[in-house]
């Protein structure tokens, strides 16, 4: 998951959950889910959530950070 460089403030909803495997920084496979979400502004994104992440609080936190990041990137301008 990317560093928390934006304040989680976007509304969002989960629109898809797909079982997946990612690779840890140590090269080990990690089982989890690829969560697809749509923000209140209409942007879509995905975030990988390992199976060890607590449900629902840990998953909500991961999606909230990713959704805020997507909205922040999608609404950037050269004026801000």
Q: How does the major sheet shape up?
A: 3 strands, antiparallel
Taken from the alpha-carbon principal axes, the silhouette is globular
Q: What is the helical fraction, as a range of percent? A: 10-25%
What is the terminal-to-terminal distance? Answer: 25 Å
Please report the total strand number as a whole number: 3
Structural class: alpha+beta
- Supply the number of structural domains: 1
Order of helices and strands: EEEH
Low-confidence stretches: none
Task: Give the key terms.
single chain, 80 residues, alpha+beta, 38% strand, globular
Structure, described:
With 80 residues, the chain is of the alpha+beta class. It has one domain (12-74). It contains one helix and three strands. It is globular, with a radius of gyration of 13 Å.
Write the layout of secondary structure elements.
Elements: E1 12-23, E2 29-39, E3 44-50, H1 57-74
Concise account of the structure shown:
The protein has one helix and three strands, in the order βββα. By secondary structure, the chain is an alpha+beta fold. It has one domain.
